[in-house]
Amino acid sequence: MPSEKSRYEPAPPIPTYDEATAGDGSSSISPWPPSPSPADTRPDHETEAQSLLPHSRPHDQSRAPAGYRPPHVETDDEGSEWSLDDDDGSDTNEAAQVRREMQELEIEDPLSDSNSSTSSWTKRIGSRFSLPRWKWRWRLPRLTVRLPRQSDSANEEEGGESSETRTRWHFPTPDITSRDLALVVGRLLALIAVFGTVYLLFISDLFGNVAQRLNNQRFDPEAVRQFVQFSVDPEQIRESLKHFTSFAHIAGTEGDYALAMDVHNSFANDGFDQVAVDEYYVYLNYPKKDGRVIEIMSADGKKAIWTASLEENEVGGETAGRQTYSFHGHSKSGDVKGPLIYANYGSRKDFKRLADKGIDTKGAIALVRYHGTQSSLGLKVKAAEMAGFAGCIVYSDPADDGFVKGEPAPKGRFMPADGVQRGSVSLSNWIIGDVLTPGWESKEDKPRMKLDQTKGLVQIPSLPIAWRDAQILLQHIEGFGERSPKSWRGGVPDIKWWSGNSSSPIVHLKNEQDADEKQKIWNIYAKIEGIEQGEKSIIVGNHRDAWAFGASDPNSGTAIMLEVARVFGELAAKGWRPLRSIEFMSWDAEEYNMIGSTEFVEKNLEVLQKQAFAYINLDGAISGRDFHAAGSPVYHKLITKVIERVSDPVNNATLLDLWKDREADLEPLGSDSDYVAFQDMAGTSSLDIRFDGESHPAHSSYDNFQWMESIGDPEFVYHGLLGQVLALLIIELADRPILPFDMGNYAASLGRYFGHLSHWVDEKGINRDGNRKLNFSSIKHAVRHVQRTVSQFEKWEPYWEQNVIALNGLEPAALGVLRLDYNTRMSTFETDLLDLEAGGGIPNRTQFKHVIFGPQLWSEYDEAYFPAIRDVIETEDWPLAQSIIDKTANILYHAATALIPE
């Protein structure tokens, strides 16, 4: 159980069905199931709060629904042959006594401590489950068989036996009256009806439904929510994070494998139904100790006059092992020399400005800074390559992440002078996952491309450095080239900002490395089987590998996920099972190119498209104090409902109140974490949650446990809060009878996304001044069709609620079948937005199939809507662009149409 520090006063509970559906829920439009006959309803003041799952209730609150009439049963006094009581009537009082005993009997809640003599979570059996002891007296008619008698005289002659002596050797036909025969036939027909009913129940699998209800009957849904929310222990999370950050664990290394086994053992100890290790063989590179050099050469180019430090100060401590070297994942090996030229943030516009100024960049070494107008590290290096540079150096500028912003680490949140931000230069916007197996899983026996065939790698060497090294480089190009504009000037002290040119001092860049085209990596999975739709899954994922110690990114998320997994393991040990399966997944090699998650998706693509209901992602989960959520529009209502229950003790407010104060909203997904493959390839509605809003020394050795304990989250309050949010999200998605997706928000969001696209097209001037090249009316009509259809679709849930409430919380088997179909149609809507035609997807980047979401060819990490349309418009291929516009509209139209059964 959580420590005392983690116990907070809970926020008001999630509204019950009656509260959520107060008012007239009737609809003038008939949904696809046949409308039931109107049922009487109870007055508001008598209406009991209904849970989505049936559960025991206090007997003083239990009432039959309005309009209910008890069945009339004939008694023996009325001449019936079917008796419920013994003839003496003694069972009448006994049945009443049994009812009173059952109503007063307290059942210990399975979520409570079994060793406790009293429980705060006990509940009484509701009267609807308190049945009298019915005694069925199967009264067969008394068949009188009259046997022949000997004559009195004969009997007296043979020994004087009584005249009542019966003969035992003769069995004449019994004398059965028509009334007796009718009773026998009636009872036989009744037996046939009973056995037939039992047979039909088995055929319809209703008994399985009943078994599921009896299992869930033991668990009050609100009690389950409270259990998972308040069982999250920040101290457990702290201890896990301390262990995970005690050694470096780059993907595929010994430290990574050790942590993989720790995660596996943790899942096994939690008692999950399934725990598995999934191995892949992928292309990874590693730095060599003496294989990396950045130095300024003498005028004749024969010797070095200055050499960069490259490495950070030692901050890991004795228990950490060797700190990881500074390098770029998936960088190109090479040994090059050239004049140094400064190119701001390394965007294509920045390199174009240099060309416009007449600065020759061919064969030069580019110096660019992180962040800014081109946040993708790989695209910075690719843009330098396309501009003719021979190599690229990337540094963290204090104006973006350093003392200009605030106190540097280890005493603050920003990058210190020696801090180096590692990262991958994979072209994840173009190819995601293992760059040698795009589109299929990277198993050992699978084919793979050659390094010079893939489009996912840059072709010039690159290295990261700290601003203390960049300062020397910038000082040596003073007076060469052009004075940099104000927007190009960073925060490095003692610098007069110049661009440099072909006459700048020569810089030597060497990047020799170890590379393995079949490096083994390990994904770890654990699963709790669902009892109603076990084939459907709610998936929670977090990557495990880190560039250094990874306290914030990613192991704050790892520690939180394992703690929530522990809580669910404990809940399952008490006998609870969700309606849908819950899967926890620890990904490997995310930092290189989201490899582990992508390979899993590629291996299981068709299954995920059919069976995965939702994916929740954790990455750099804790770096600040502001709650953020990014995801598919279907999560809007669910997020607000969950964070209303979670209170921030530091700010003395619920997360929802703080969310509203910031005017925050559900953000769009980007393209820089493990949700990419699920959302953009498998069409699984995805969600990413975190606490941030403040900087942290990302991807450096300063992102360690000491920093988290002293600066990041000293009391591990926000680790605990995010654990609560995650646990509640899982419960709602896995155990609500109706999947809590906000389809109305999705439909409304599509209208906004189309507005963004239209604005972008207008800015391009494509249809300006009557020079119309593209017609977007098909998409406009398709979006309106989605909105109308979703409006009709959403009317079924109130219909279901009304029927369940009318039956006092019970769901007929036929209605349950329709509910499962309704859930599947909701989840399939996202999948139906994939372009699954042969060769479909974004042109030249066919891994990405979603027509609404996905990275642009040259986008930042932020989301761009309708990426295929934008890409083709950039090429000015108008016939192809119009074709993709119409194709997108057609996909939208059919996705909406599939929501409503024929």
UniProtKB/TrEMBL annotation:
Chain ranges passing through the membrane: 181-202
- Gene3D superfamilies found in the cross-reference section: 3.50.30.30, Transferrin receptor-like, dimerisation domain, Zn peptidases
Question: Which residues lie within the region annotated Disordered?
Answer: 1-96, 149-171
- The Peptidase M28 domain covers 523-706
Acidic residues compositional bias: what residue ranges? 75-91
Taxonomically, the superkingdom here is Eukaryota
- PA domain location is 336-424
Alphabetical UniProt keywords: Membrane, Transmembrane, Transmembrane helix
Sequence ranges assigned to domain Transferrin receptor-like dimerisation in this UniProt record: 774-899
CDD domains linked: M28_PSMA_like, PA_GCPII_like
Q: Which Pfam families match?
A: PA, Peptidase_M28, TFR_dimer
Instruction: Please list the GO terms describing molecular function.
Output: carboxypeptidase activity
**Is the Plastid keyword given for this protein?**
no
The residue range of the signal peptide is none
Hey, which family's this protein in? Answer: Belongs to the peptidase M28 family. M28B subfamily.
Q: What is this protein called?
A: Transferrin receptor-like dimerisation domain-containing protein
